[in-house]
Structure formats: structure tokens, C-alpha cells
Amino acid sequence: MSARDEVLARVRAALSGDGKAGAAAPSAAQPARTYRTASEHAPGSATALEILVDRLEDYKAHVHRASGDDEVARVVGDLLADARSVVVPPRLPAGWTDALGAGTVVVQDSREDPRSALELDEVDAVVTAARVAIADTGTIVLDGEPDQGRRAISLVPDLHVCVVRAEQVVHTVPEGVRLLAAYPGRPQTWISGPSATSDIELSRVEGVHGPRTLHVVLVG
Amino acid sequence: MSTFLGLPRRRTVPDDAAPFGDVPHPDDPLRWGETFPDAARAALANTQLRTNLGHATSTIRAKRALVVDEVPDWEALRDAGSAIKTDVMARLPELLTELERNVTARGGVVHWARDADEANRIVADLVKATGETEVVKVKSMATQEIGLNEALAAEGIAAVETDLAELIVQLADDMPSHILVPAIHRNRAEIREIFLQRMGDVPADLTDAPRELAMAARAHLRRKFLSAKVAISGANFGVVDTGTLAVVESEGNGRMCLTLPETLITVMGIEKLVPTYADLEVFLQLLPRSSTGERMNPYTSLWTGVTPGDGPQAFHLVLLDNGRTDVLADEVGRAALHCIRCSACLNVCPVYERVGGHAYGSVYPGPIGAILTPQLTKSSAGGGGRHDDPNSALPYASTLCGACYDVCPVKIDIPSILVELRAREVDADREGRPTGWGAAMKAASFVMRDERRFELAEKAAVLGRLAGGRDGRVSRLPFPGSRWTSSRDLPVPARQSFRSWWAEDHDGPTHNEPPHDGPPHDEDDAR
Amino acid sequence: MRIALTATCIADVMFPQAPRATVRLLERLGHEVVFPEKQTCCGQMHVNTGYFDEAVPVIRHHVETFEPVLDGEWDAIVVPSGSCTGSIRHQQGMVCRRAGLDGLGARAEAVAAKTYELSELLVDVLGLTDVGAWFPHRVTYHPTCHSLRMIRVGDKPLQLLRAVEAMNLVELPDAESCCGFGGTFALKNSDTSTAMLHDKMANVSSTGAAVVTAGDYSCLMHIGGGLSRARSGVATMHLAEILASTREDPAPAPVGAQGTQERAGATEGGHR
């Protein structure tokens, strides 16, 4: 018998009551979902944004506000004034990198023409869009679409500037998951602040292997 | 400290290096060391360990309490988490095959492993096929449980742990003592010393500031991440309806392993399924708050098979049984398979807080370990629930205080399962030689099922008052009572039982005896 | 109300002051208390050590003893113990059913539904928080694990204690952590149990209380055993003893752990 067939046979035996304990099968009842799946705070509402900012800052992300794409460019330009290089995904909204200094090299990356990990390690920063943001937990989710890029580009450079549009901000985790469920097969990265560890005496240290600095630019 | 079976495995560190680990690498990661009471006694005497654990567990308890209290629907989430896991167990055969189908459809390769040896063999062969001799690893309980690193080492493959705490444990040639924070038994000074002696590339002026230590780990692992061709991970969740896998982490080492290498091998227990993608909305709320005491952990990675041009282009999923089907067969004990490895139960356990993880002799310590380990190993060599199996002491490693049940995000009734496992233990022993406990319990049952016998026993107990000193307390008893009187006095039975008082006071003196005050006769021979 | 008392086996033999105080308190409040003399034990010790087969006849005996409550013989059953109440409510039925005795399990659950821990009876059933008690001492309260997490009495005992006249109730640090008793745990894992006990004793001592009280004499036996060994001078008293104490009929002055009952014996005349 193959391992597959044997494991499945053992599982069936365990559930059939033929198992050693003579156990009755557990019931396959539909789980009750009485937890919050919606919120009184609509996506993009002032309260949702306020909660998101509070949570992001609590976990040591830096939050900046921009009224529109022009202002995004200015904020990005300011944040990356000292960066020698910045990597961008293939279809970052036009204009977001327009205000970068002349000394900053913009590195292109795409699934078709990827930069290697060692190359990315030489890059100072990355700018991406996001798919959705969850206010309650201070979480930004990237799903690898062309405005966000390959997972590697938002991982290896030490500074991540993530631009989130107000209408992408939902209040609760279930609201976020239900949006993401439209394309569950996309590679997702849920980001809540810069990388961190609490492995030494449970004392939190921000900044380990992932980007040590996270800037979130909220548009709108 | 001795190992239960055989000799410790070859260590990865030269013999002349100063030892850090208290625990030699065992042959069986689910059964090592002395039995719990003995191991606990040694741990209790370790002042440094007590201090480290007390500080760490109280810190994490406070953090968890804060972020759980701010969730208005926490109990509803726990109910949903529990119900979803019950449903998973009920439909496990169909869910496993559906997961397999969906992972395969997205370019992944699914392997099945009956036990640890088979899983280790599958992984070693997959790594060898790539021609690599070094792999990077994301912290994973499943690979700890099967002793994967040691198995790979035997095949000439070095597995580099990349989680900070796991790296500390690996460098110290130690065993993990906590599910979430494997090096919780170490303080910063010890970690600095381990890094200085074992890491090889640390600055000589390294201090014990957690930030500096974390930065030393970053520098040490950076080159390995960027050049690794093969990574090995576990998985927190396997989403059946989409074939998606999830890893929840903090440092970014997980993302490095799951994203940069060409080949990813994930080892996952067959119980870690959730039926639908939407179920993540429950578990991604329950897990971080219960585990690290954060609203959300810094990074969660979700991947589905292979994404062309993004991440590893070869993906293997190893589905592991290794005793899980034995657990599943137990109507009561199967709830232990609902565990999402958050470790909240360890952090609130008054026993764990004082003795630490190594005393449990398993990579699964604490309350969940006390119900999971004996069940996972009951069919393995040396198992069977008999009292010569050191794991048979684990269900007794609890006061049944219930703190674990209260914090469990999927509402595993750990105290009830502990009691059930004790009953299994007792029932298994019925066929063997009678134990002292068994005789005492049978005798007590005989007495307590009948009020006349009970009343006689009561009178005998009252006669036993002379065992006490003049102040009415017993300070020294023979074994096993000495286990009590080693640290506590015992009051002598009351001068007059309640029963006797009631008869005298409420029913009149007819069937009552005066309180026995005089010196009892031979009873003190028992002393 | 006509209330049947489950004295509990340990209190019957070792700590009769707790059921006696329960009787005195409920009678003072105008209720009739009945002690079904057939009673022995609820079976908790057998269940928690895994001796289910041996527990069954003990449970059967308990059910048969208290079953008249279902016919209206009594209005309720009171137990001055959180852990015995917990075992009656959450374990007896399970153990019977596991032995294939569904009928007995159902009867056990029916009796359990009429069974209350003392603070539950006073607060939930009788609707009282002020029972007119008077106890002029400094007291700290240890919420026992089973009263807290098995039957979830919450702050009912504290509501009752706060209403006691002349008493100085002081908060116990880290109150909700286990004292380390755990039945046979104290014997099988004596060292770990002792470590837990010492932390509990340190917290008790830090309050400066003369008395540590709780709703379970099993836990009090453990804490008191440690306090006595340490010659701490801190007394242990059951919640019922404090609530039974009045200005007219006061409880005897607290005496360092384990000396209490000797003292109680000595003052029996004045303290019924």
C-alpha cells in the first residue's frame, strides 16, 4: 500500500469507530459564524483610516498622508532623498516616482525580467502599491499584482515605501479576507509594521531580516 | 540527564567546545530525558531558568491579555475556530485529497509520510536531487517533531535554522523549550555568550542588548538567505479549497525562505487544514493575539503551488501522519489535533512557568504537550501508555487549574483531556501488575460507595488524630505521605466529624457518639 | 427554602467547621438545612486520578443520595466547595456515559442542575450579597481554580465578602494563579507543587492578612499546610466560616493555620 493510501485508510479507520478507542465520528456541522464580518466603519472612512494609522504607528511603521498622486510623488521623493537606488514593480502608478532626485537610480523588476536576490540586496529601497489594508490590525496586504511586484522586491531592500489608497482600507480582518478571496491563488504577503522579533526575553526589537523601515503613504 | 532510548546522537559541535545545552539531542524528539517529576525537580533548582521563565511568561501573558481584551467578538471567534477544526477532523479524508488535488493543479507536488522516518527520507531525497548540501529553514514544529535536521545531517546536508530563537537553540546544540520561543529559557547574557562562541562572524564587542543580538543574527544569516537554493518550512494552515499554504512569522526569515530559493519543501501535519480560504479570517485573528500577543504578526505569507516568475519554482508538500491518526481515533483526545500551536497555554500554565519546557521531554511542552505527546507516541516503540513509558507521566503534570482552557483560541478542553488520558493510563495498567495507587483507589471506592463503611472509616480517621503533635498538625508522614509533609503540615482529622456533630445537634443523640478526645490506641504505629 | 447539604468527604472528616458554618449561616437566613446522612463523596478524587471505574459506584451513591431533590424533597443542594460542585456538574455525567451508563449519567446531570456552590446559592438563588456577617479581621481571598474556571463563580464570593461588616478585605496579588494543590499532583509532583505553593504563600504574606479565605477546604488545606509549616501565623478559613460569623455569635479569633479547628473545638459551646 502506498503511503498515501495507508495514511488515508488510517484516517478513515480512526473516524469510522473501528479505531482503537471505538470512537464515534465527530459531527460535520456547519460552523456558526457569529463573529463580526462587517463594520459600522465603511472602507476608507475617517474612522477606519484613523484606526489604521494608530495601529501602524503602534508597531513602529511611519505613516504619511497625501491628498493625491502629485503629493504621493512629493512624499516619496522626500522619503527617498538619500536613497542611491530604488526598485519598483512593473506597473507602479505613473508619477509616484516622478519627484525622486537625479542621484537615485530606479531599478525595474518584473516576473519576466527579475533582479536576483544579490542584486536586490544592493538596492536601498522599494516602492509598491498595496491590495488592501486592514485597520484593526494595522495590516497591509500585497498580492503580487504588477503594481506591487514580486514578493522579493518588498523583502530584500531595507526600506519599504508602501502607498495605500484610502478606499483600500477596511476596518476588520474578515472584510479584508473577503476582498482577497476574489483571487486567493495570488501570492500574498501580509505586512504589519517592519520586521520584528521578540525572541530575546520577549522584548520586542523592530527590524530583523525583512525591511527594517516601513513607510506607509495614505492617499486620500 | 539521561536519554530514554539509546545514546544521544552525534552532536554537530566539536566535543571540546564548551557545552551550552542541558539536553543532548535525543533519538526521539517526542520522548527524551527523565520522567516529568524528576526532570521538573532538577529544573526547579535552576535559579537562572526560573528567573528567565518567570520574566518571559509574565511579559507575554500581559501582552496577550491586552490585545485579546480589545476584541469585542473574541468568544465568537473562539467558537468558530473550534467548530471549524471539529469539522476538519470529521471530513479529513475528503479534505486531504481535495487539498492534494488543488496543490497539484497549481504546480505543487504532494508527498505522504506515514511516520518521521518516511518524512525525513522524502525530504532528504528531494534535497539531494537538487545537488545542494545546505538548506535554510523556517521554524517548524513538524520538522522538530521528526528530527529532520539530524536526519539531514546524517545525509551530509546542513540545515540552517533562521528563526532567531531557533538559531540560538541550534548554535547552543540545545533542545527547544517552548513552541513559539524555543529559547525562552535563555536570557540575553547567555545568548550573547552563545553567539560569541558559536556564531563565528560576530563583532568581538557584541553587547547583550536585544537589538545588537538581533542585528548579529541578521548579518550572520543574510548571505545564506541570498544564496540559498533550497528552503524547508512548516505551515500554519493548509487551505483546502484553494490549495493555499500559510506561514505566520515576525522576523522576515520566513519570507526569505519562502520567496528567494528555487525549491521549497513544506512539511505539514495532516491536521493543519482549514476548509476554505475564508476560514483564514478566523484563524488570522486568533493566532497572532494568542501567540505573540500582537494584533497581527509582522509577516504572513500565503502561497498557492507555484507562481511563475515569483518565488520558488519547485514546491513540494509533505503531508505527515506520525501518530496523528492514533490521536484522531480517540473520541476525546482528538481535540488535541485542533491545536494551532500558539503556545498561549504554555504561557499561562503555572507548572510550565516554573519548570520550563525541557522537563516535558518532548518538543511539545506545556499543557498541549501533556495531551499531545502521549497520544502521538502511544503506538511508537516504547509507547503504549504503560507506566514504564516516561510519556505516561505527562497527563499528571498538571493541577487541572484550567488556565490553559481559558486562553486556548480553539477552546481545546485540555483539563478534560488530561483526565481522560489518566483514565486511559489507569485502564491500560489494569491488565498489568497492580499499583499502590490502584489499590488505594479501589479501597477508597469500596468505602465511599457505602455510608456505613464511610462512617466507620471516618471514626478510624478520628482515632488517627494522635498522629499529630499536640498542636494538631502532622509534620512527618511515611512515604507516600512524606511527599506532602516534605513541605506542608497536615491537620489531624477533626475531633468530631461533621456527620457526628449533625447527628448530635440536629437529629438528637440516638446514633451519635461523643467526640473522641481520648488517646487513640495503636493507630500511631502507622507513623 | 429547604436546602440539602453536601458536606463533602474531606470537610466531613477534616474540616467540619465549613459545613457547620454553612448550616449555621443558612439557618440564620431562615432556611431549613437537611443533611442526607447517606452521603459520602462526589467521586472527584477518583475521576481526576483517572479511576473512572472506581468512581462510578461512588457517583451512583451520590446520585441516589441526592435524587430526592428531583421529587421536590428539597429545593436545592448546596456544596461548600467549588471543586466538588465542578465535579458534580461537569464530570459525573461524563464518567457515567463513558461507562455506558447513560441513564445514570442523565440522573446525575439532573441532580447537578439543582446543585449549587455556596456563593452561587447565596447570590444567584437567594439573591443575597449582604448576609449580615461581622468579622473584624484583615482577610485576603484566594479564588480557587475550580470555582473560578470550572464553575465560574466570578466575583460572587468577593461580593459576599465586601458586604461583611468590620472586615478589612485586602486584594491578593496574582490571586488567580493556582496554589499547586491539584489533588494527587501535590504527591506525584510534590516539588513543582511546593514551588507553586511558596509563591502563593509569599503573595498571601505580602497582604498582611490574618486570614486567607477560599471556597474550598482542599486548597485551604494545601495553603494552610504551607503557612503552618512556615509558622506564618496566618489562618485559613472557609468563606462559610466568615459569612456565618456575626457580632452576636462571632467566629473564634483566627488562629495560625491548622490551629483553627483545635480552637474551634475548644470554643464549641459558644459557637455551636
Question: What is the subunit organization of this protein?
Answer: heterotrimer
**Numbering strands along the chain, what is their spatial order in the largest sheet of chain A?**
1-12-7-4-2-3
Number of domains of chain A: 1
Spell out the helices and strands of chain A N to C.
Answer: HHEHEEHEEEEEHEEEE
Describe the 3D structure.
- The complex is a heterotrimer of chains A (220), B (527) and C (272).
- Chain A is α/β, with parallel strands linked by helices.
- Chain A is 23% helix and 22% strand.
- In chain A, a hairpin with a 4-residue loop joins strand 5 and strand 6.
- Chain B is of the alpha/beta class.
- Among the domains of chain B are: 92-325, NagB/RpiA/CoA transferase-like (Rossmann fold, 3-Layer(aba) Sandwich); 446-526, no CATH class.
- Chain B has 22 helices and 12 strands.
- In chain B, helix 3 (74-90) crosses helix 12.
- In chain C, helix 5 (82-90) packs across helix 7 (102-112) and helix 8 (118-125) packs across helix 10 (156-162).
- The longest helix of chain C is centred in the C-terminal third of the chain and has 18 residues, at 190-207.
- Mean pLDDT of chain C is 94; it is low at 258-272.
- Classes of the chains: A alpha/beta (220), B alpha/beta (527), C alpha/beta (272).
- At the A-B interface, helix 1, helix 4, helix 5, strand 9 and strand 10 of A face helix 2, helix 3, helix 4, strand 1 and helix 8 of B.
Secondary structure: elements and pairs:
The complex is a heterotrimer of chains A (220), B (527) and C (272).
Chain A: H1 3-16, H2 46-58, E1 62-66, H3 69-79, E2 85-88, E3 105-108, H4 117-121, E4 125-128, E5 132-134, E6 139-142, E7 159-165, E8 169-170, H5 173-180, E9 188-191, E10 196-197, E11 205-206, E12 213-219
Parallel strand pairs in A: 1-12, 2-3, 2-4, 4-7, 5-8, 7-12
Antiparallel strand pairs in A: 5-6, 6-9, 10-11
Chain B: H1 36-44, H2 47-69, H3 74-90, H4 92-105, E1 108-113, H5 116-130, E2 134-137, H6 141-145, H7 148-154, E3 158-161, H8 164-171, H9 188-198, H10 210-227, E4 230-233, E5 237-239, E6 244-249, H11 253-259, E7 263-269, E8 273-274, H12 280-291, E9 299-304, E10 314-320, H13 324-328, H14 344-348, H15 350-355, H16 366-376, H17 403-407, H18 414-430, H19 436-448, H20 451-463, E11 473-474, H21 482-485, E12 490-491, H22 498-505
Parallel strand pairs in B: 1-10, 2-3, 2-4, 4-7, 5-8, 7-10
Antiparallel strand pairs in B: 5-6, 6-9, 11-12
Helix pairs in contact in B: 3-12, 16-18
Chain C: E1 2-5, H1 9-13, H2 17-28, E2 32-34, H3 44-48, H4 52-66, E3 76-79, H5 82-90, H6 92-98, H7 102-112, E4 115-117, H8 118-125, E5 138-141, H9 145-150, H10 156-162, E6 168-170, H11 185-188, H12 190-207, E7 211-214, H13 217-229, E8 235-238, H14 239-244, H15 260-266, H16 268-271
Helix pairs in contact in C: 4-7, 5-7, 6-7, 8-10, 12-13
